[in-house]
Amino acid sequence: EMSPEGTERIEVRCPRVTEAMALAKGLDEVLEATIFGDAIHMLTRQGSDEALRRALREAGFGDAMLTHVPPTLEDVFVTLTATREAAAHV
To answer: Could you count the other beta carbons within 10 Å of the beta carbon of residue 37?
Structure first.
């Protein structure tokens, strides 16, 4: 399992994914967000579904569809790369 403790991976489907991802990256609950096809894969703090759904709805993205997903190889790569970069900046 490549999701750090206390986090979960969520796939978000909503209109205008690029704009939705930009919004998501500004939220405290969202640790990572990458576009994956026509959806956004997010690494979020555990239990942030409602806050995320509300933020998207309030920003005009309608009722976003949130699904819990296992990490894909791409998600794992993004996490490992981010971790390695963070370690390099110490």
So the answer is: 9
* C-alpha span between 44 and 12 (Å, rounded): 11
Counted residue by residue, the chain has a size of 90
Q: How confident is the model at residue 57 (pLDDT cuts 50, 70, 90)?
A: very high
Q: Give the percent of the chain with pLDDT over 70.
A: 96
Q: What is the pLDDT of residues 30-53, one digit of tens each?
A: 999 999 889 999 999 999 999 999
Closest CA to 56 of 26, 88, 90, 86: 26
- CA–CA distance, 15 with 61 (Å, rounded to integer): 6
Phi-psi bin for 74: left (phi > 0), alpha (psi -120 to 50), beta? Answer: alpha
Phi, psi of 18, rounded to the nearest 5 degrees:
-65, -45
CB of 10 within 8 A of CB of 66? yes
